[in-house]
Structures are given as structure tokens and as C-alpha cells.
């Protein structure tokens, strides 16, 4: 009755099932690894958000690469804004996914070093985005700013191309090494997304108070989904075998009954 399992169709079906099971198990394991990685990154973000603000120069210095543990850590700096060398970062979105600019203003510390401060998001003046937008001025004189420490942006990490030939005072990436060359100054590695003081009229729109958390739970759900699929494959194979066996048995019984009727002698 089970000789049909040796047919070409069933051999192929069985081989496919045998290949699917370990593949789905491995995909589930991969999703669990992604879950663990994202959970660990989210924990680093939570730890940084819960940490008390520290002076910015305790975490970064000129040429320093901001690490994943330092990212989002709240830092403070005392100095003054240098609006003469202010630039805007193109193609940035706000919390409503509107496209505009981030305002990047050098902040000169009391020791002469420069900290890059992302003061927030502003809307573009027009569709062309070629003219330098109108930007509300920051507080004048010596002040203390607070923000979330962020690593330098690169094309590899962000996927944003560092285009050349842009309009005056417009850039694509926030990168301390590039800004150090432009300013001719010692620029601290990375930059901060400003959280305080809040601007008058809420413009620019502060972005540093809303760091993104990765959806690790989704990877956890995907892992179990793949494992359920892996468990369903042999169950489905057994169901198909039993159905095929039943159909063949019923067909054999019908054929046997028909032959009996043909060979049975006619009643006198």
C-alpha cells in the first residue's frame, strides 16, 4: 500500500520536506540571534538614557569614535554658539516624516574646542531646497547646552550618499572629521542632539529627546513562527501520506467490488 512513496513525485516531495525542516529551524535560530542583538542594543540605549548627564569632554575628544555604549548618553557643555559657521543637513525628516533640514551649529567650548550641536529640525523654504533656510538664532553669549551624544554619520552606516556640489552651507552627513577641516578647529568626535535649552516657539524641533528603540519582539515572534513552520512540515507530510493511502485503498476496494460483480454467475 505504501509503494507509492517510491514514485518520482513522492520522492521529490519528501526530499523537499527534509530540506525545509532544517532550513526553517536555522531561520528561527537566526531570528533569535537578531532578537538577542536588538535586545542588547536596546538595553544600551536604556542605560544611556537613564544615566546622569556628564561633561561632554569626559566621553569624547577630537578624533574620538563614539561607541555604542556612549551613544545617547546625556552630556553637557558650556560655551557659545558660532552661528557664522552654521550649516544645515539635507533630506532629514521630523516626527511627522516631513522632509526638511537638521540645523548643525558649532558650539565653541571654553577651552577653544568645538562641539557639533544638532539643534533640531526645520522645514524647507521651498521645493528646490537650494536657498539657505531661515533659522531662528540660538541664545547668545555663554550658555550650557545638554544633548544626546551621537556617533559621526557615514555613508556605510546611514546609507546616505555624501553628495558634492551642494548649495552653500548645506551638507549631507554630520561628520566631525569633515567639519574639523571646514572649520579649521579641534572638533570633538561625534555630535550631540540638543535636548536643552528648548528653543523659543519650538523651532527648530528638537530631535534628541526621542531616540529610537528597535523592535526586538518582532524577531522573537518570527523565530517561533519559523519553528512552527518546521514542525508543520512533517505533520503535513503525514497528513498527505494518510490521504493518499486512503484514496488508494478506496480506489482498490471499488475496483475489487467491480471485478466481483463481473465474475459472479447470473441468478437462475
Question: What does this protein structure show overall?
Answer:
The structure is a single chain. By secondary structure, this protein is of the alpha/beta class. It has a domain at 52-202. The protein has 4 helices and 8 strands; from the N terminus they run αββββββαβαβα. Strands 2-4-5-8-6 form a 5-stranded mixed barrel. Strand 4 (99-109) and strand 5 form a beta hairpin. Helix 1 (8-50) packs antiparallel against helix 4. It is elongated. The model has no long low-confidence stretch (mean pLDDT 88).
How would you describe this structure in keywords?
268 residues; alpha/beta; 4 helices; 20% strand; elongated
Helix/strand/pairing class, anyone? Answer: alpha/beta
Mean pLDDT rating: 88
- What is the H/E string? HEEEEEEHEHEH
Q: How many E-type strands?
A: 8
Name the beta content range. 15-25%
What does the radius of gyration come to?
Answer: 33 Å
Provide the spatial order of strands within the biggest beta sheet.
2-4-5-8-6
Gap from first CA to last CA: 39 Å
Largest sheet: 5 strands, mixed, barrel
Number of continuous helical runs: 4
Shape: elongated
Amino acid at each position: 500500500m505504501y509503494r507509492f512513496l517510491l514514485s518520482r513525485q513522492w520522492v521529490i516531495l519528501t526530499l523537499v520536506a527534509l530540506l525545509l525542516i532544517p532550513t526553517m529551524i536555522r531561520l528561527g535560530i537566526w531570528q533569535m540571534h537578531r532578537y538577542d542583538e536588538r535586545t542588547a542594543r536596546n538595553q544600551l540605549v536604556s542605560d544611556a538614557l537613564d544615566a546622569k548627564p556628564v561633561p561632554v569632554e569626559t566621553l569624547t575628544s577630537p578624533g574620538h569614535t563614539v561607541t555604542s555604549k556612549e551613544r545617547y548618553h546625556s552630556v553637557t557643555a558650556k560655551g557659545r554658539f558660532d552661528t557664522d559657521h552654521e550649516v544645515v543637513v539635507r533630506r532629514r525628516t521630523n516626527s511627522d516624516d516631513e522632509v526638511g533640514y537638521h540645523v548643525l551649529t558649532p558650539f565653541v567650548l571654553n577651552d577653544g574646542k568645538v562641539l557639533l550641536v544638532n539643534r533640531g529640525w526645520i522645514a524647507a523654504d521651498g521645493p528646490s531646497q537650494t536657498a539657505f533656510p531661515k533659522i531662528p538664532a540660538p541664545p547668545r553669549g555663554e550658555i550650557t547646552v545638554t544633548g544626546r551624544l551621537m556617533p559621526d554619520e557615514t555613508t556605510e552606516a546611514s546609507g546616505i550618499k555624501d553628495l558634492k556640489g551642494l548649495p552653500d552651507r548645506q551638507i549631507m552627513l554630520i561628520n566631525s572629521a569633515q567639519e574639523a577641516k571646514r572649520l579649521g578647529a579641534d572638533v570633538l568626535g561625534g555630535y550631540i542632539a540638543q535636548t536643552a535649552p528648548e528653543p523659543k516657539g519650538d523651532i527648530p524641533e528638537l530631535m534628541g529627546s526621542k531616540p529610537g528603540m528597535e523592535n526586538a519582539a518582532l524577531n522573537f515572534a518570527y523565530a517561533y513562527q519559523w519553528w512552527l513552520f518546521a514542525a508543520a512540515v512533517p505533520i503535513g507530510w503525514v497528513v498527505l501520506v494518510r490521504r493518499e493511502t486512503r484514496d488508494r485503498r478506496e480506489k482498490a476496494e471499488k475496483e475489487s467490488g467491480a471485478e466481483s460483480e463481473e465474475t459472479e454467475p447470473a441468478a437462475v
